[in-house]
Amino acid sequence: MKGKTIQEIKMGDKASFQKTVTETDVYLYAGITGDINPAHINDEYAKNTFFKGRIAHGMLTAGFVSAVLGMYLPGPGTIYISQDLKFTAPVKFGDTIKAEAEVIEILEEKNRIKLNTTCFNQNGDIVLKGTAVVMPPK
């Protein structure tokens, strides 16, 4: 399985990945990363926060962008070079998040592409936005 090469990628190409965030996802992410912030795993604590309940880790949501880049555009064999992110809204348990990537620049001589990266919830609200630079497979 191999992703698209830089010669196969065009300006404006898009791909997406969608997943519903579960309590299990959040607990597994907390265990893997060591980020056991009570805003994510302690319901009693989280009820008294700005969000009035537990929220998913922002970087868990950012991981959905990684899924788009590594599996769909460019796809398998892609090397993630950089990412800038802005978290614009919380992701709550049960939210369905759609991560999208769109090619905005092709640097063929360096074998790099730049993409807008955006995550939306089931209501169409943007929960994450940024840009990524990746190296497609050769």
Mind explaining what this structure looks like?
By secondary structure, the chain is α+β, with helices and mostly antiparallel strands. The protein contains four helices and five strands; from the N terminus they run E-H-H-H-H-E-E-E-E. The protein has one domain (6-135): Thiol Ester Dehydrase, Chain A (Roll). A five-stranded antiparallel β-sheet has the order 1-3-4-5-2, covered by helices on one side. Strand 4 and strand 5 (126-135) form a beta hairpin. The protein is elongated.
Describe the protein's topology.
Elements lengths: L13 E7 L2 H11 L4 H4 L1 H4 L11 H14 L7 E9 L8 E12 L4 E9 L5 E10 L3
Antiparallel strand pairs: 1-3, 2-5, 3-4, 4-5
Q: What's the main sheet like? A: 5 strands, antiparallel
In the CATH hierarchy, the third-tier topology is known as: Thiol Ester Dehydrase, Chain A
- Described by the principal axes of the CA atoms, the overall outline is elongated
Whole-number total of structural domains: 1
Query: Number of DSSP strands?
Result: 5
Look at the structure and name the CATH superfamily: Hotdog Thioesterase
Give the terminus-to-terminus CA distance: 13 Å
Strand order of the largest sheet: 1-3-4-5-2
CATH class: Alpha Beta
Q: Helices and strands: which structural class?
A: alpha+beta
Tally the helices: what do you get?
4
H/E order of the elements?
EHHHHEEEE
Q: Evaluate the radius of gyration.
A: 16 Å
Estimate what percentage of residues fall within beta strands. 25-35%
Unreliably modeled segments:
none
Mean pLDDT: 97
Instruction: Please bin the fraction of helical residues.
Output: 10-25%
CATH architecture: Roll
